[in-house]
Amino acid sequence: MPIDPERAIGADLGEVTFAWTPSDVLLYHLALGAGSNPVDPKELRYAYERELRVLPTFATVAANLRTFEPPAVRMPGVDIDLAKVVHGTQAVTVHRPIPVEGKAVARTRIVDVQDKGKAAVVLNETTVHDADGNPLWTAQSSIFARGEGGFGGKRGTSDKIELPGREPDETIITATLPQQALLYRLCGDRNPLHADPEFARAAGFDVPILHGLCTYGIVAKAVTDAMLDADVTRVKSFSARFAGIVLPGETLRTQVWQDGSRLLVRTSTVERDAPALSDAVLTTA
């Protein structure tokens, strides 16, 4: 079905009530590789309930932890084959530290639909409040749908982040596991692109690829650990563009530039020297 931007833009995608427990938080952190050094007190903040803290990127999975079916890309004015879709961008802003256990209500709307010619980009915004109506976080995301452009919509603007013309203040090397995608999918993203070799080949990839949101969380944790002494409560927001794929088992190279309260971030794979995250910014409280 062709995309109908007039019907899609501004559409309310409804309200979802959800809850999470410390076990959910622990699973999410472990799916990002937390606890690789199980005697490091900083790692145990992620992997042991005694002093558990919540990495703000948990917001990307909190509402979908009980999802056991592959996602469908069907919204008002939008109906896209899942095999054509990859994650485009992701941003999370927390309004206070996420509690280790809670109940919340999320409401999502379509902010924009952009026509890139050979592809379409659909941008959503989700606002989340706790059971008492207090704001918890706001998330923005976009999906990139290959072959779905040409419907006559606006192209949209660029959000490119200019990096300083100097060496990074920090370079972080982070390993991923060969089974990383199989672990991460237990957090609610059951897209077969990340587990099924046959589906991945049909989508144009040689093998299943790592979830973009898994890379997003791994990098957020790595930067928080290296630059903020693993204090997740100092993270106000994290935004990034998915610039390329990561294969499970590859090593990530993350470069960080300090810019006042902003940490400018770029991540690539070591083995292929290929981009993974670009235009990424972590802001501190």
Features:
enoyl-CoA hydratase activity, 285 residues, 36% strand, single chain, Thiol Ester Dehydrase, Chain A, 3-alpha,7-alpha, 12-alpha-trihydroxy-5-beta-cholest-24-enoyl-CoA hydratase, two-stranded antiparallel sheet, ten-stranded antiparallel beta sheet, MFE-2_N
Structure in words:
- 17% of the residues lie in helices and 36% in strands.
- It has 285 residues and is of the alpha+beta class.
- It has a single domain (5-284), classed as Thiol Ester Dehydrase, Chain A.
- The strands form two sheets. Strands 1-5-6-7-4-9-12-11-10-8 form a ten-stranded antiparallel sheet.
- Strand 2 and strand 3 form a beta hairpin.
- It is globular and about 55 Å long.
- The N and C termini lie far apart (44 Å).
- The mean pLDDT is 93.
- Residues 164-274 form the MaoC-like domain.
- Pfam families: MaoC_dehydratas, MFE-2_hydrat-2_N.
